[in-house]
Amino acid sequence: MIVLLTNDDGIYAEGIQMLGEALLQDEEVELYIVAPDHERSATGHAITMHRPLRAEEARFFHNTELKGWAVNGTPSDCVKLAIEYLLPQKPDLVISGINRGANIGTDVLYSGTVSAAIEAIILGIPAMAVSLVLPFDESKHPDFRFAANFMLRTLRCICEHGLPPDTLLNINVPDKSRREIGGVAVTRLGLRHYRNTFQKRIDPRGKNYYWLAGELVDSSREEDGEDTDVAAVKKSYISVTPIQFDLTNYQLLEELQKIDWGI
Amino acid sequence: MIVLLTNDDGIYAEGIQMLGEALLQDEEVELYIVAPDHERSATGHAITMHRPLRAEEARFFHNTELKGWAVNGTPSDCVKLAIEYLLPQKPDLVISGINRGANIGTDVLYSGTVSAAIEAIILGIPAMAVSLVLPFDESKHPDFRFAANFMLRTLRCICEHGLPPDTLLNINVPDKSRREIGGVAVTRLGLRHYRNTFQKRIDPRGKNYYWLAGELVDSSREEDGEDTDVAAVKKSYISVTPIQFDLTNYQLLEELQKIDWGI
User: Fold this and answer.
1) A252 and chain B: CB distance < 8 Å anywhere?
2) Which range marks the domain in which residue B82 is found?
3) Is B202 part of any domain?
4) What ipTM goes with this model?
5) Would you tell me how many other CB atoms lie within 10 Å of the CB of residue A23?
6) Which residues of A touch B113 (CB under 8 A)?
């Protein structure tokens, strides 16, 4: 089984390396890492059209069997380039992560981690995206081990059950001990609301500038439901959300067909 | 009616200016333009987190009534910043475009034009994205006039019918004369397939690099259906697709709930 591993935190991030080490424990896995050469968070589904890409070979974990490339592009670029040029054959599965920080609710639209997995399913390859949900107290160093081992088990589970080629699993694992985790919740995407999105500041020359900031508004509001990823991770569950890429609002098609567009 | 106009081709692109001029013909419209200071195509839903944004005032069309800002960020940044800081009050509608080139099928995931409109509906504001479908012969200078006038009529139509706040209309208008256009087709998103996505080249120092290229595979294949945006523009129709931002694959939720995740 050929697995392509990528992320948006960059190829030298701890999360992808911990996940790579865990997956190597499965002898049936032939693992390749193709990931950005530096952090590319919040790049959404950007692709690089106006400058060329380069792929530098990289080595990891003192494991000479493992092949990897650092690419000067976005997570989506990495998946495209890996599948088209760098890997000896098409992978059976693409995994993106482990991201440092949750990718839940509407925030998945901005997520490079999830976009890499969406790129895979556009190309017809099943995929998973995995993120570590950090606690509010960010002074604790994140511990990717439990999430990495969960992904190793999930990989075996997926091999058994199969995944449709046009769907990815978006997985968010709380950074907690096994004892504190409630279990696995299969969820739909919830909403994430922010307020005071920007801070307006004045530079040393007296001109305005704006920093994206934003406080998360408590999004476990009742109207958003208990079956969302946002609600699941708040209750210390591992959230698993099936994601597809057809944005069509089918419910509105019929209504729009009634309109006279004047043409 | 307050309308925010943005794009991804940059604030000084012809498409946004032609659309702005057309919308100003409606006396009920109070128009603001907030758009990137240079072309930001294929940025997907990227947002700028790691550097500050600046907004410079801009003037257009020799019309001193019109207010505009050029922002050194992505289309999504522009919408966020406009709504939070730059506009005197929340707009009633966001329009993104007119993009130079189609935004149809799976390509909408990469589109800065469509992402700006998605940002608007995330913030609860109805939106439209509009793109000009260019002919294969790119030597002809694109003519935005018909598309701009169509948007003016559609704006009035939308005022009358209303749009749900969580849906945008993705509109693609062929760059053809009124006579050649078949009419309006309400469509779902189709698929776009590419082959030979990258060209591999060798730089003057003997090292490999890769350019994103890609030939579009004829995507009017029967299995993809006649009711898609891809099929509609091929037949010289104006395509109108309702788009939402919930990527959950609801059909798979139940099946995934049966899996034993070992936790």
Assistant:
1) yes
2) 2-190+224-257
3) no
4) 0.88
5) 21
6) none
